[in-house]
Every structure is written in structure tokens, then in C-alpha cells.
């Protein structure tokens, strides 16, 4: 009876959370004003100030501890051998508690940002585009990538190599986002805490370039990925710290944050990033004349475009597929209906942004 009452309390907490989420979902203006630009704006800066003082990732340690603790609890339940029915009941009770507590703290500290006013409305841009517009921006990105590559290397056959230390890229990413905030007249999120994840190898096998820890508000970057991709990843994760929750929107801020840099290498990395998404969209839409675009890409640029794919192909396996599926469902549960494909909505924002701002 006592266990039943305990579970009932946890389910009631979950039910209340769903009611609050539903209210926020219908009132993005409330989320924008009361949560993102008031509560989250102040609490996140305190959290970043606190954990940002540590030279290592506190969030990685926290996740490692939680996972270890849950595994230990499951081990103890199996060890007690209280019968299969009781074991299933206890495992279910543990799972319910973990999920409810996770989402409760997650939403309070960061997750409600998923229900704010969409970025396209804030920037006053559309999200629809024609195939002609996609072809046009793809051509312009190819021309820009070829031009920047020649400026950097003076040889169209040689790929651009970025040898900056990871720490420099992380510091510069914050500069790029601050410049973007200034250009857009957004409130400045201070005390950025951007760090190398010591879980980079597991992240690589899971297929992730980085992540934001919502509990410590540390932006984590996988230091094993190619530097040309790390530049936009760093600004992407910084965008999440600013309360940009949607992956497509963080992609746009990540791209613009790198593009705003004075360093031509960062501008090139941003251009390569956008071009890869556009070409991928054309391929996914089975565009018949894709070769007419790829044939215009210089050899050096083509190498840089394929660099990311070559890197990830070394680590692709069952774990990658599982975690992509798991994360995709997590995104759907947090108001990102397209799941893992929400990253690709970046192209919608990219095209419409550059209708009003020159490439």
C-alpha cells in the first residue's frame, strides 16, 4: 500500500508537469518574457559563474555519477532476488522516479526554453522556401567557399587546415556570439562556460559533436572532432546557453556566430557548414542535377566538405544508431517534432535569413 501511494505521488508530479508544459506550449510570449528573459537569464548566469570556475567539466562528472548510481541501484535490486514480480515493480518505480526528477529539474533549469517564441519570428523571417531559392543559395555558398579557400591557401587543390588549439576556438566562439548579440540587440548572456568534454570518446561513438548540460549550464565540446567542424559546434552549444533550445535555431546562431568572426578561417568553416547542409538537402530531395553543383566545387573545398563524414564513418556502429534514435525521441518529447531531423530545418532559416542579409 505504501509503495502504491509513493508511485501515485510521483505520477501526480508528472501530471502537474504536463499541465504546466501544455500551458507554456500555448503561451510562448509568457515563456519568452517570464522564463527565458527573466528567470533563466539570471539563474543561468549564476550557475555558469559557479561551475565555470572549474577548469574541468562538472557536468560530465555529474552525468557519470548519476549513471553509475542508477546502474548500482539496478544491480542491488537484482542481487536481492525478491522474485520476478517484485523486481519488475521495483525497477518500474526506479525508472519512474529517475525520469520524473530528470524532467522536473531539466525543465526548470533550461528545458522551458523549448516553448519560447520561434527564432524566425524574432528575426522576422519566413521558414518557407522554393527549390529555386535553395539552388541559388547553394551556388552562392559554393562560390564563397571556393573564394575563401583560395584566399587562405592560394591553391584550389589543397584543403584548409585549422591548427588552432581547442581552447582558442572555445574562447573565440564566445566572441562571435557576443558580436551577434550586439548586431541583433539581444541581451548579453555573460559568464559563458564552454569546455572540452572528457567524455569526448563516448560522445564520438554516440555520434555527438557536443552538448549543453542543462544542470550545470556548461557547453561541452567533443575535442576529437575535426577543427573545421568544431568552430560551429562551439558557437552552436553557446547558443544553447543563451536559451536557444531548438537545434535548427542553434545551428543558425552557430553558423552566424562563426561567420561574424574577423578570422577568415572561421568564416570559411561557417560557409562549409552551411554548404554541407544545403547539398545534403538537395541529395535528400533527390535533385537530379546535383552533379552540376559538385562539379563546381574546388578540390580543396570538396575535401573539407567530406572531412566530417570521413571522421564519423570511423565510429559508426550500433551505439551510434541507438543514441541517435534515443535523442531523436527526446527531442520530440521536448517540443521538437522532427526529432533528430530538426537539425536540417536550419536550411529553412538559412535561406530566409539571407534574403534580408547578404551572404
Reconstruct the topology from this structure.
Elements: H1 2-26, H2 28-51, H3 58-80, H4 84-109, H5 119-122, H6 131-153, H7 166-184, E1 194-196, H8 200-206, E2 210-213, E3 218-221, H9 227-241, H10 247-259, H11 264-284, H12 291-294, H13 299-313, H14 318-333, H15 346-356
Parallel strand pairs: 1-3
Antiparallel strand pairs: 2-3
Helix pairs in contact: 1-4, 3-4, 6-11, 7-9, 7-10, 9-10, 9-11, 10-11, 10-15
- State the helix count: 15
Biggest sheet strand order reads: 1-3-2
The total of beta strands comes to 3
Q: What does the average pLDDT come to? A: 87
InterPro entries: DUF3810
Protein name: Amino acid permease
Keywords: Membrane, Transmembrane, Transmembrane helix
Pfam families: DUF3810
Explain this structure.
This protein has 359 residues and is mainly α. It folds into 2 domains: 2-115, no CATH class; 120-356, no CATH class. It has helices at 2-26, 28-51, 58-80, 84-109, 119-122, 131-153, 166-184, 200-206, 227-241, 247-259, 264-284, 291-294, 299-313, 318-333, 346-356; strands at residues 194-196, 210-213, 218-221. A 3-stranded mixed beta sheet has the order 1-3-2, with helices on both faces. A hairpin with a 4-residue loop joins strand 2 and strand 3 (218-221). The chain is globular, with a radius of gyration of 22 Å.
Amino acid at each position: 500500500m505504501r509503495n502504491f501511494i509513493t508511485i501515485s505521488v510521483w505520477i501526480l508530479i508528472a501530471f502537474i508537469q504536463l499541465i504546466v508544459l501544455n500551458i507554456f506550449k500555448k503561451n510562448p510570449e509568457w515563456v519568452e518574457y517570464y522564463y527565458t528573459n527573466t528567470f533563466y537569464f539570471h539563474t543561468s548566469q549564476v550557475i555558469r559563474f559557479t561551475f565555470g570556475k572549474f577548469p574541468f567539466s562538472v557536468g560530465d562528472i555529474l552525468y557519470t555519477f548519476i549513471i553509475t548510481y542508477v546502474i548500482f541501484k539496478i544491480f542491488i535490486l537484482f542481487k536481492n532476488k525478491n522474485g520476478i514480480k517484485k523486481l519488475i515493480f521495483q525497477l518500474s518505480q526506479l525508472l519512474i522516479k529517475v525520469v520524473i526528477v530528470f524532467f522536473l529539474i531539466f525543465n526548470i533549469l533550461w528545458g522551458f526554453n523549448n516553448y519560447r517564441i520561434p527564432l524566425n519570428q524574432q528575426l522576422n523571417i519566413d521558414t518557407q522556401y522554393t527549390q529555386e531559392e535553395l539552388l541559388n543559395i547553394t551556388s552562392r555558398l559554393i562560390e564563397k567557399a571556393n573564394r575563401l579557400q583560395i584566399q587562405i591557401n592560394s591553391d584550389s587543390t589543397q584543403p584548409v587546415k585549422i591548427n588552432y588549439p581547442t581552447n582558442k576556438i572555445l574562447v573565440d566562439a564566445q566572441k562571435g556570439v557576443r558580436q551577434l548579440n550586439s548586431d541583433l540587440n539581444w541581451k548579453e548572456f555573460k559568464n559563458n562556460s564552454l569546455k572540452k568534454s572528457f567524455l569526448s570518446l563516448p560522445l564520438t561513438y554516440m555520434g555527438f559533436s557536443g552538448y549543453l548540460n542543462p544542470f550545470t549550464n556548461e557547453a561541452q565540446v567533443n575535442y576529437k572532432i575535426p577543427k573545421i567542424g568544431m568552430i560551429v559546434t562551439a558557437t552552436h552549444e553557446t547558443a544553447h546557453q543563451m536559451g536557444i533550445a531548438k537545434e535548427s535555431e542553434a545551428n543558425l546562431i552557430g553558423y552566424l556566430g562563426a561567420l561574424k568572426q574577423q578570422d577568415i578561417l572561421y568564416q570559411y568553416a561557417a560557409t562549409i557548414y552551411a554548404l554541407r547542409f544545403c547539398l545534403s538537402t538537395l541529395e535528400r530531395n533527390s535533385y537530379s542535377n546535383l552533379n552540376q553543383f559538385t562539379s563546381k566545387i574546388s578540390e580543396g573545398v570538396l575535401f573539407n566538405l567530406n572531412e566530417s563524414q570521413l571522421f564519423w564513418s570511423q565510429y559508426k556502429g550500433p551505439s551510434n544508431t541507438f543514441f541517435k534514435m534515443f535523442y531523436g525521441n527526446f527531442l520530440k518529447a521536448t517540443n521538437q517534432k522532427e526529432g533528430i531531423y530538426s537539425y536540417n530545418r536550419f536550411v529553412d532559416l538559412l535561406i530566409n535569413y539571407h534574403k534580408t542579409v547578404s551572404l
